[in-house]
Amino acid sequence: MHDFGFLNSKCALPEAASPERVEVGLSRWLEAATEAGVEDFAEQIISDPLGRKALEAVFGNSPFLTAAMIHDPGFTQRLLTAGPDETFSGIMEGLGSARGKPLEAEALALLLRAAKRQTALTVALADIAGVWPLEKVTGALSDFVAAALGLASAHVLTDAAGQGAFTLNNPDDPERDSGLIVIAMGKLGARELNYSSDIDLIVLYDPEKIIDGDGDGDAERLQKHFVGLTKKMVRLIDERTADGYVFRVDLRLRPDPGVTPVAIPVLAAETYYETLGQNWERAAMIKGRPVAGDIDAGDAFLKRLTPFIWRKNLDFAAIQDIHSIKRQIQAHKGGGDIAVGGHNIKLGRGGIREIEFFAQTQQLIWGGREAALRAPGTTDALSALAENGRCDGAVADDLIQAYEFLRRLEHRLQMINDEQTQIVPERPDELEKVAIFMGYPGTKDFSAELIHHLSTVRNHYGDLFGEEPSLGAIGDDGGGGRGGGGGEGGIRGAGNLVFTGGERDPETMTTLKTLGYGKPEIVDAAVRGWHHGRIRATRSQRAREILTELMPVLLKAIGQTPAPDTAFLRFDEFLTRLPAGVQLFSLFHANPQLLDLVAEIMGTAPRLAEHLSHRPAVLDSVL
Description:
Layout: H1 19-36, H2 39-47, H3 49-59, H4 63-71, H5 73-82, H6 84-98, H7 105-128, H8 134-162, E1 166-167, E2 180-184, H9 186-189, E3 198-205, E4 211-212, H10 219-238, E5 248-250, E6 263-265, H11 266-275, H12 279-285, E7 289-293, H13 295-304, H14 306-309, H15 316-323, H16 352-366, H17 378-387, H18 393-417, H19 428-437, H20 443-464, E8 470-474, E9 480-481, E10 488-491, E11 495-498, H21 506-514, H22 520-531, H23 541-559, H24 564-577, H25 582-590, H26 593-604, H27 606-614, H28 618-622
Parallel strand pairs: 3-5, 3-6
Antiparallel strand pairs: 1-4, 2-3, 2-7, 8-9, 10-11
Helix pairs in contact: 1-2, 1-3, 1-4, 2-3, 5-6, 6-7, 6-8, 7-8, 8-10, 15-16, 16-17, 17-18, 18-20, 19-20, 21-22, 23-25, 23-26, 24-26, 24-27, 26-27
């Protein structure tokens, strides 16, 4: 007899949303178990009431988890008999023991993908059954990825050293004192990774810790080596093979990703953050954590960034800029208002992002003086804010409850087909399946709770960030609206204008087309360059913040000219030649009608525009 002790009456196993899938899944699983020689176990667990319900909860709700169970009946047997805690410990021990084995890249890739499949099934069953709380679910996913990255980084370091790129300080422990730094950002950095997510990484290297293979100290050659090994490390993690993938990797949170290589020297990164770092990058760095490579060097790097992230003086002026990362006119379907079907529970109103920003903005205001507020995790940060009198305790409790509900829902949505999605289905039949997977009898009760949490978050977030008038977003009637600092904003009736972060926002491309631009990708690239301080006029933080607030009205004004793309390029040339930007941007901010004048010159008077671009001081006479 087998013991299914972890499956007991306290388990919160959901019903099967699709009885048809249950029958197909049971049949296929029995067939696979027979081929694997564990048919006795398979028949026994099917005859056990709780065991069968566990199988039905998987087969009737998630095609992805069904495939994972059928792929390896022997592992499923271990999971259902030993339970998720012991099983996950075994997976991690297996990864640890692999560190001492010389594996080829193909063998390591296969090992990591098998471990990922097993981790996905283990974590999912623990989550579905309710035997692990949210922090344990997200912590296990985060710890697995950190271990996988450690194996991958050790492999590529050893491989590069074997080819003479450099000499390892500790060949038996390649990562130690290697100078390779892998910083996890976002949810991985805070140990709150989602079930199916990108992992955001910044890869650095410290030339002073690296024993150069040729001994000539050639910086360009060393960078080439570290760019190459970074690409190999990423390939080991995110390349899709017949055995699947580990996690998708995103390297676009590094300093100025449009012009920098995928691995950059530590000193270059420090210089960037000290001189050109943006406020949204300060917020992102709250969650930064070294997860692979030279951990000590990573800790030292983040410690040196402390003055950049945590300012001793209360930084209320920067909060408008930080808040703009979320502050958008969300014209896309289901994004602007509270909804159920079609709502994005991460980016939409009342969603996960609003909870995260509620915590992060206050951390940036007060954390410079109060170190207790610097917790990277969202729920820990909310609790710390309440404990230190910076947030009402009842508000923090509401947001934590909403966060846990929304993250659980996010995981269910992603478990269905291993898709990186946060959008609740619109079709009634698909919505009902999600409701059942969440443990509700049907759509009505699920929808009521979802609306409750989204509304609660929206109200608390709205109380924190008032709807003060601002130049940043222009309504259709030309009146003031809500602004867009930090590279984000919106134009009422048009859509998003988002230029922060490392990736191009598809809805911003649509908005720019709506405004009249034929080549929105050129506009996007130029604006991102401005915000990264690639021109003299935007090298001061104050200049970038004012320009950011101007962005929606600026783009609308240029978009109303007869040839917006041409006018924009002329304005870009004009801006590029400016020796400084604060004075002019402040003048535009105080007198928005002057932007219309400049836009008209750029769009309708090419000779004057060219003259102005080569002699920007002439604008003083015009004014």
